[in-house]
């Protein structure tokens, strides 16, 4: 079964060899999907026949968003913490424990329903690849169920037993680190591709981070790190030293951190919704881009530091607050996210890509930043099927 999408006003392929600029834009274009893949892209006038036909009527078509950082297996919410923050309370990692208590008390069915609700919410907004972390269970059994349930629903699963030290180990954090590296990792590794550590003052220090990453890598997981979110620290350097796919947050960076990222394959994943929702300064995206680092954008959707599931909102923030161009922001939210997940099949619309397609109710990708807060999704295909 093949379908042709024709009369595309602007097709963002993300391959500069296919079209204009870094987004590889084709105008008056068409695209053919066969099964779950893109099999043809080119000018509408040259398009081949297909079984089914969809008229884009001049609108823009982009790769579906790749949200490479989210925490979606949880129960409850923390609206009051947000309200207190907006009245001047600082964000502190300790709020995570409120969600841990609610998550431990929830049933599997409740966790699955909340996760599915959020992934559906993302799909409606054009996100077709989702990464989801554990980290609100913090016992071997609760972390195992988080990664197991996540693996039923999303593409990319990350074991984040090292999110914070739970209250019962507050006086003996090393015993908790040993649990994460031992029984918890063994229970979670079969369901996860990635290992993550919240390397930050108040969470895990550099030695603990090293121990946990090394154990994860030994168990066959690939590293990614929460780094330099709340202050300067060793997170980015550790991420680069371990060849992590991504260093996430990157809010407080030194010259050395930027040089390290620029000279590595580690993607700097920026999460501007967090700065928006915690009233922190935004990361210096221009510094990273001009130094030559690869930048991705993601939501960090979670009930504490940032409860948005909207990649379009993150693009608008990146453009307005971090001075990224609309093209840079759209690339970072699609191809950048794919790099941060080491995925070659998503984040672009060239022949062979998974047919993850976002059609906007707008003539160009610029409208994502130009019309903040406005729903502009006309249709979404995921792996060749209409997802919304
Ligand atoms: O990425 N930084 C650590 N973890 C999350 C916040 C989780 C929470 O506050 O519940 C983050 O911002
Ligand atoms: Fe996070």
UniProtKB/TrEMBL annotation:
Its main location: cytoplasm. It is an enzyme of class 3 (hydrolase). It is found in: Cytoplasm. One of its GO terms (molecular function) is imidazolonepropionase activity. Keywords: Cytoplasm, Histidine metabolism, Hydrolase, Iron, Metal-binding, Zinc. 4-imidazolone-5-propanoate binds at residues 78, 136, 163, 229, 305. Binds 1 zinc or iron ion per subunit. InterPro entries: Amidohydro-rel, HutI, Metal-dep_hydrolase_composite, Metal_Hydrolase. N-formimidoyl-L-glutamate binds at residues 136, 302, 304. The keyword Calcium does not apply. Its cofactor is Zn(2+); Fe(3+). Zn(2+) binds at residues 69, 71, 226, 300. It catalyses: 4-imidazolone-5-propanoate + H2O = N-formimidoyl-L-glutamate. Its EC number is 3.5.2.7. Residues 61-384 form the Amidohydrolase-related domain. Pathway: Amino-acid degradation; L-histidine degradation into L-glutamate; N-formimidoyl-L-glutamate from L-histidine: step 3/3. The keyword tRNA-binding does not apply. Pfam families: Amidohydro_1. Fe(3+) binds at residues 69, 71, 226, 300. Belongs to the metallo-dependent hydrolases superfamily. HutI family. Catalyzes the hydrolytic cleavage of the carbon-nitrogen bond in imidazolone-5-propanoate to yield N-formimidoyl-L-glutamate. It is the third step in the universal histidine degradation pathway. This is Imidazolonepropionase. The lineage of its organism: Bacteria, Bacillati, Actinomycetota, Actinomycetes, Streptosporangiales. The gene is hutI.
């Amino acid at each position: 079964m093949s379908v042709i999408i024709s009369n595309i006003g602007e097709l963002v392929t993300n391959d500069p060899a296919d079209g204009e600029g870094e987004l590889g834009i084709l105008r008056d274009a068409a695209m053919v999907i066969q099964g779950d893949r893109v099999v043809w892209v080119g000018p509408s006038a040259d398009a081949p026949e297909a079984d089914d036909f969809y008229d884009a009527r001049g609108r823009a078509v982009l790769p579906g968003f790749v949200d490479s950082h989210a925490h979606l297996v949880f129960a409850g919410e923390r609206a009051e913490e947000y309200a207190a923050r907006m009245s001047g309370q600082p964000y502190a990692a300790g709020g995570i424990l409120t969600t841990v208590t609610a998550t431990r008390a929830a049933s599997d069915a409740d966790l699955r329903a909340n996760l599915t609700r959020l992934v559906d919410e993302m799909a409606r907004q054009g996100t077709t690849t989702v990464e989801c972390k554990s980290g609100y269970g913090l016992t071997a059994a609760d972390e195992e169920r988080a990664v197991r349930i996540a693996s039923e629903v999303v593409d990319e699963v990350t074991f984040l037993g090292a999110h914070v030290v739970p209250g019962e180990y507050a006086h003996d954090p090393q015993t908790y680190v040993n649990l994460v590296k031992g029984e918890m990792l063994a229970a979670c590794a079969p369901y996860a591709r990635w290992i993550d550590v919240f390397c930050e003052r108040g969470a895990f220090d550099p030695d603990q981070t090293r121990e946990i990453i090394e154990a994860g890598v030994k168990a066959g997981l690939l590293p990614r790190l929460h780094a330099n979110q709340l202050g300067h620290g060793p997170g980015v350097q550790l991420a680069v030293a371990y060849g992590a796919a991504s260093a996430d947050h990157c809010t407080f960076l030194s010259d050395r951190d930027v040089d390290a990222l620029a000279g590595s394959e580690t993607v700097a994943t920026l999460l501007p919704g967090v700065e928006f929702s915690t009233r922190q300064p935004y990361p210096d995206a221009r510094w990273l881009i001009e130094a030559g680092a690869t930048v991705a954008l993601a939501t960090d959707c979670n009930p504490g530091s940032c409860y948005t599931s909207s990649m379009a909102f993150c693009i608008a923030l990146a453009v307005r607050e971090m001075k990224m161009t609309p093209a840079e922001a759209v690339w970072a939210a699609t191809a950048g996210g794919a790099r941060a997940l080491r995925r070659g099949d998503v984040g672009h619309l060239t022949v062979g890509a998974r047919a993850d397609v976002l059609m906007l109710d707008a003539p160009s990708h610029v409208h994502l930043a130009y019309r903040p807060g406005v729903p502009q999704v006309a249709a979404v295909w995921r792996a060749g099927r209409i997802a919304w």
